[in-house]
Each structure stands twice: as C-alpha cells, then as structure tokens.
TrEMBL record:
Keywords for the protein's UniProt record, in alphabetical order: Cell membrane, Membrane, Transmembrane, Transmembrane helix
Cellular location(s): Cell membrane
UniProt xrefs under Pfam families: AA_permease_2 (PF13520)
Membrane-crossing residue ranges in chain numbering: 45-65, 107-130, 142-162, 169-193, 213-233, 253-277, 289-322, 348-367, 373-393, 414-435, 441-462
GO molecular function: transmembrane transporter activity
Organism: Pseudarthrobacter sulfonivorans
The name this protein goes by in its record: Amino acid permease
Amino acid sequence: MSKNHSDGVGHLERSIDWKQGLAIALGVPLLILPSLGYLPMYLSAAAILVWGLSVLQGFFQNTAYAELATTFPKASGLPGFAQHVFRTENYKGKYDKGKLIGGFSAWSYWFAWNPVLAIFAILVGGYLHGLFPVLGETFTEYQLALLSGLVIFTGLSVVNWFGLKDGALLGYVLAAISLIPLVVLAVAPFATGHVELANITGNWLPADWSWDMHHILILFGIFAIAQWSACGWETAAIYGPEYKKPGKDVPKALFACGIICFFSYVLVQAAVIGVLGVEGVQAEPISPLIPVALAVFGEAGTVITIIMLIAAMILIIQTAYLGSSRAMHSMATEGNLPRVFGKTNRQGTPFVAMLVTAAFNMALISMGSISAILAAAAIGYTCANGISLFAYVKAKKHPAFANLERPFKAPKGWKHVAMAFGLFNLPLCLVGVVYLNSLEIGWTSTWLGFLVLALYIPLWFYSQHESGRSKNAAAARSSDHDAADLAKLPASR
C-alpha cells in the first residue's frame, strides 16, 4: 500500500512489469480513429505517409523519454521529467521560474491526454446511436455521449480504485478484444482484394496542393494533430515510478508499443483509403471503418466490428484516465499544484485527480465537437513535448545531472536530435495547429486550449503559497519544540 507524507501527498507503488505497462499503452493505436477521416480531407492518400512519419517521430522523441525515465525513476513520465530538470535546487526565493516551466509542461501534458476521455465518449455515443436504432428514438447523440461518459468514467473509477495492477489486468482483457478488430480491418481488405491501389496512387495529394506558406502551415498543423495520436505511446514511460525494474521495463514497453503503432497506423489508413477512395473517406469522416467493415464482412460483421470498436474505445479511455490522473499526482508531488490533487487511497491510487479528470471531461463532452476538442488537446501536446525534449537537452548538458546513473542510454549525440524535435514542436507545430484551427473550426478550440493552459498560472501561485504556509508552520513547530527542550534544562546559578 502507499504511504502518505505528512503533507497529504502519497507515493505510487512499484507493482507492474513491462508487459503490464504495454497492455495499458496498447490503447494508443486506437487514437487514429478520430483522425482517420480528418487527415485525408487535407492530404488525400499522403495521409498514410504522415502517419508513418509521425510514428517514426515518436521513436526519436520516446528514445529521449526512455532515458529520462530511467535517469529519474521516481519522476512520473513527461510531467515528472520536466518538473525535476527545470526546478532550481535549494531555491531561496519565493517563486522558482524553473519550477514554473516544468510545472507548465506537466499541465500541458495533462491537458493533452485529458480530452481523450471526452472524444471517445462522444464516439461511443455516436456508434451506439447507429448500432441500436431504438436508442436513437429515445436519446439524441449528445445525450448518449453524456450517458456513455458517465457510465464509462464511473466504471473505470471503480476498477482503478484498487490500484494500477488491476487497471493493467483490465488493459490485458480490453487489448485482446480491441486489437483484434483493428488488425482484422487493417489486414482483411488486402487479403480479400477489396483494396484498390489506384485509390492510393491515383490520389496522392489534392489537385490544388502547392508548397506555399499556406499549405506548409497546414502541413505543420496536420503533423501536430497526427502527433497527438501517433506519438502517444510515450504513455508507457509515464509509469516509471510503478515499474518493478524501470531500467529494463521502460524501454521494453516503449519500443514494443512503438512497433505495434507503426504497422497499425500505416495499414489502417491504407486499408480505409484503398477500399473507399479519398472521396469515400471524406463522405464518412467520423467513422470510415464502418463502411470498410460493411464492404468486407457484410451486415453481421459490421455489427460485431462496432461492438468490438466500442470495447477498443473504452481501452483508450482507460489509458488516458490513468495517464491524466498520474500527471496531476506528479504535479502535486512536485509542489506545482495544490496538495489535494496528490492524495492517494490505501491502494496508491490518486483518486482526487481521477475524480477531477472525470468531471472536467463531462464538461468537455458538452462542447459536442470532436474536432474542436482534439485541436485544443493538440495545442497542449505540442507544448508538453517541446518542453520535455528541451528538458532532456538540459539533463544531458547540465553538470548537476552529469553523474546520474542512466540504466538506459540513448545513442550518442541524441541531445541534438531532441533539440531538433523540440523546435519542431515549439514553435512550428504549435503555430501550424493554431493556423489550421482558424481555417477549420474558427478560434473556439484555440481559445479553449490557451484558456485551459493559462488556468495553470493561478493554480501554481496558489500551490506556492500553500507550500510557503506549510514550511512556515513546520518551522514554527520546530521552534516551539526547541523552546520546550530548553525549558526542560536545569537553570544555571
């Protein structure tokens, strides 16, 4: 069981191995679902190449994160790495700017993962609405999305209340259920001859595509959206404090998940475009896998596919739920959020963070637009990755970290790779996604993204005042204790 500090922040337990971490992260291939129809709208069949390049980008970034995870085994993934590296040791002033930067990275990461719950709850509601006509007579899609979110979040809260080990067990079951339809839908269309290669080669880029600044900014924005899905398997590293052997478990879990993601992202998008053509995908942008299943398997196969995809969506909600709650726990542990968010139960589960995450996503579901929510989340993800990669560069160059043990080491010179991808995220992908948002859905999602990110500033200042009060109270108790000890001494003549 976890032990709680006197300040109310609990420790996470070392209870899982790399296979359990992989099982939880195996929800990541399902992150392609919201964007399967979105990328071809802008890039036609070249969307296949973007997915492949984005997963490769994940290998470059996640190699740095794997080293950070084993260098700082007590830090919780991206949020913990940045907070640990940027804080100033033995800082004497009131506000540590380095600590603010690290904390902002963690908050950005929390906001990047958090909306996964809302996005897939909306998708579940949409699939249920199409699968069971009787539900459509009773509820609207919006009502079904809210109901789906409430039921799923409540169920996962109960399961994860008993600790990450049980959450990983659920991950095993759902991974087996959910990866089957994804693999089948990726491979079967090729095997049955339903894929027309001309649909891919004959429509590689839109007819009006040109390499001007307008299209280059769109491309950066598309990479930001794709990265949110295709690089998300770094979640396997966020459980660094909970692996039994972080030096071996972290890289194993990361790279196994990366290989699975590469083949699934490329093949699923290729299958969808190969069967439906770019125009067919654009006609069914939210759920293009359904007409693919209908073409390959018929009516009965489509029903089975939808049911299994719903199970897959619950798996990715589970992945995001765990990642988001542990990001908040990490911030509270580092003193970057109020201590209440770091409270754990007897099983070591950060239950307050989980409840806040569920409530926040119920509010997001009320927006109703998957595109708006995803675009806002992508803003947070580019910020989190950029700052975390800069943290890796600092951890390699700063003398304070030079002598730390590194059970897993990235190849020599990786700090230059990390710097390049850090700059790719900030500012290029950030500018691109803001530009893309302005074209696609106006400024709503951009303002939402920046508003949620800005909300961190007052929360951080409150947490610093809270820490100051705690230190002053501890100093006062120590002073009273010393005075009492002096009073017990015999008086001198």
